[in-house]
Amino acid sequence: MPASRPKKTRSTPDPSALEERIRAKYEVLPGSEIAVANLLLNHPGRLATYSATELATDAGASKAAVTRLIQRLGYPSYAAARAQARDAQQWGSPVYMEASAPVGQGRHSAFASHIVADQQILARTLAALTEEDLDGAVDALAGARRVVVIGFRNSAWLAMYARAQLGLLRPGVELAPLPTETLAEGLVGLGPQDVVLAIGLRRRMPPFAAALHAAHAERARIALVTDPSGAADLPFADWTLTCHCSGASIFDSYVAAVSVLNFLAAQVAQALGDTGLQRLKGVEQWHGRLGDLV
After folding, report:
1. Helix, coil or strand: residue 174
2. Do the domains at 17-96 and 121-290 have one common CATH topology?
3. pTM, 2 dp
4. Which residues contact 9 (CB under 8 A, 6 or more apart)?
5. Rounded to the nearest 10 degrees, what angle do helices 63-72 and 78-91 cross at?
6. Fold for domain 17-96?
7. Rounded (10°) angle between helices 156-167 and 255-272
8. Are 201 and 252 in contact (CB under 8 A)?
C-alpha cells in the first residue's frame, strides 16, 4: 500500500501580530513613519487591500516611508506583510475587516449595500453546495439513531436553532455540550448509527475540531456546516455544506448558514413524512395542554 501523505496543518493567524510589532517599535519611529504606523494601528485591514502607494496616500506620507516602516517591523517585503493581513482577514478577525459602504453614505443606502452583499453570500453558497452533500446530510439527519448538534462561539446559536428545528420533527436530537455538561458527556456513546451535525463558522475553537476527530474515530457520521476555511481544515467530514459569510460589514454574516439549516430541517420534514408530521402535531397538542404559547 502507498505511504499515507503527511497531514497538512494550517497555522492560526494572529491578528495582533501587526499591532504588537508597531507598538514594539513605536517610540523609535521617525516622524515620516509615524503617520503610516498610526493609520495601520487604526485601520489594519487596509494593509490587506491597499497597495503601498495607496497606503502612503491615505496616511499623507511617501511610499518610501511605508517601505521603511514595513522593513523596520521585520517583514521581508510589503507583499509579505500584506499576505499576513490577508490571512487574518480570511480568518475572520473583525479588526481586519473594512466596511464596504463609502463614508458619508446614508444609512438606507448603506443597508441596501448590506442586502446586496448578503444576496451575493447566498449566491456563492449555492454555487458551493453539491447535490450529493445535500442528499447525504438530509437522509442521515432523518434516519440516524441519534443526532448530536455542536457549535461554539457565534456558531452556538446556530446549533441551538438547528437542534430546535430538528427536535420538532424527530426524537433523539441533542445539543452538546449542555450548560451543565462537558463535551465528553454529550458525545459519549456515539457510533456508526449516529450523526454529528457540526456547525463551525470562522473563527473556530480547538474543542470543535477535537470533537469531530473523536466522533470520526468512533465512526459516527459527520454533517459539517462551515465556511470555506473549515471545509479545508476538516476534510474527513462525510458531508460538507460550505456557507460563505464575508459580507458588507466588519462582522461576518450568517444569512447563508441560517438558510442552509432552515432548508435542511424542511427537507428532513419531507423525508420523515407522516412520522415527522405526527410529532409536530404532538408538540402542538402539548402546547395547548400547557398553555405555554399565546
Report:
1. strand
2. no
3. 0.70
4. none
5. 70
6. Arc Repressor Mutant, subunit A (1.10.10)
7. 20
8. yes
Determine contact, residues 241/162, Cβ cutoff 8 Å.
no
For domain 121-290, the CATH superfamily is Glucose-6-phosphate isomerase like protein; domain 1 (3.40.50.10490)
Retrieve residue 273's grid coordinates. Answer: 413524512
Task: From 158, 154, 161, 159, select the one nearest 176 (Cα to Cα).
Answer: 159
Q: How far apart are CA 223 and CA 165, in angstroms?
A: 16
In this structure, what DSSP letter does residue 238 have? S
- pLDDT tens string, the chain, 294 residues long: the values are 444 444 444 455 555 678 888 888 888 888 889 889 888 887 787 888 889 999 999 889 999 999 999 999 999 999 988 888 887 766 656 656 565 445 556 888 888 888 888 898 899 899 999 999 999 999 999 999 999 999 999 999 999 999 999 999 999 999 999 988 999 999 999 999 999 999 999 888 889 999 999 999 999 999 999 998 887 778 899 999 999 988 777 788 999 999 999 999 999 999 999 999 999 999 999 999 999 887
Kindly state the cell numbers that stand for 8: 497538512
Q: What is the CA radius of gyration of the chain?
A: 24
